[in-house]
Amino acid sequence: MTQSIPISCSTVEVRVHNRQVPTPENLPNHDLVLRCQSGLRPDRMAFAELMRRYGSHVDRLLYHLAPDWQDRADLAQEVWIRVYRNIKRLQEPVKFRGWLGRIATNLFYDELRKRKRVSPPLSLDARRTLEDGDMDWEIATDDPGPFDDLTTREFYEQLHQAIAELPEAFRTTIVLREIEGMAYEEIAEITGVSLGTVKSRIARARSRLQSQLQKYLDDR
Questions:
Q1: Tens of pLDDT along 167-212?
Q2: Share of the chain above pLDDT 90, in %
Q3: 58, 76 contact by CB (below 8 A)
Q4: b/e 109-136 (16+ beta carbons within 10 angstroms → b)
Q5: Is residue 208 packed enough to be buried (19+ CB in 10 Å), middle (13-18) or exposed (0-12)?
Q6: pLDDT value for 40
Q7: pTM of the predicted protein model
Q8: Alpha carbon separation from 130 to 26, 118, 138 (Å, rounded)
Q9: Are the beta carbons of 134 and 174 closer than 8 angstroms?
């Protein structure tokens, strides 16, 4: 005789409810992006987690691009609005950070074109022989490590100040290269200038920074 084993609906419900569903805080960036792309609108919790993880990155990028702009917070907000509206277009979720950086940079350029600059643009056509090698310093984050001494902190403060004082075109290219890590071709596409001009601007920006920070570089 075959005996049936009764299974109550409550037992099934308990097992379903006890199943652990990963929260956004426990998901990798790739999965967060996929969650934002799966529905008609981006998943709010997943999107909020992306903002939490990359908010300081956007703020730092805009700070270096536009240190004298008082409305950087508004620009950062607009960056995330654009991300929210266009995240479904991102074909490679693993490249979210670079895509986010390009959105922030393009927004900066959109705003820059709207603002009338009273100072004449610099001529970048003058020939100058410079090596296009990497600098032997790194851009500091806003959170210095516990072992940073006074000299190192002073160096990075001077570095940030020196970057802020660079001409607009120089500052933009050096930030995109050294902070965002973009390829020369990407920078040329974003800034709308030739590859040769990008390389020239980066080399000349590096030369200016090295000149201003030589005292600190000699001590390192």
A1: 888 888 888 888 788 889 988 888 888 999 999 999 998 888 888 8
A2: 31
A3: yes
A4: eebeeeeeeeeeeeebeeeeeeeeeebe
A5: middle
A6: 87
A7: 0.60
A8: 47, 30, 20
A9: no
Q: Quote the CA–CA distance of 104 and 176 in Å, as a whole number.
A: 11
- Give the phi and the psi of residue 49 in degrees, each rounded to 5: -70, -40
Place of tokens 């920078």: 187
Which amino acid appears at position 48 of this protein?
A
Contacts 24+ apart (CB under 8 A), 81-88: 82/107, 83/50, 84/42, 84/47, 87/33, 87/36, 87/37, 87/42, 87/47, 88/36, 88/37, 88/42
CA distance 163 to 202: 12
DSSP per-residue letters across 169-185: HHHHHHHHHHTS---HH
Q: Which two tokens stand for residue 66?
A: 């536009």
Q: How far apart are the C-alpha atoms of 155 and 160, rounded to whole Å? A: 9
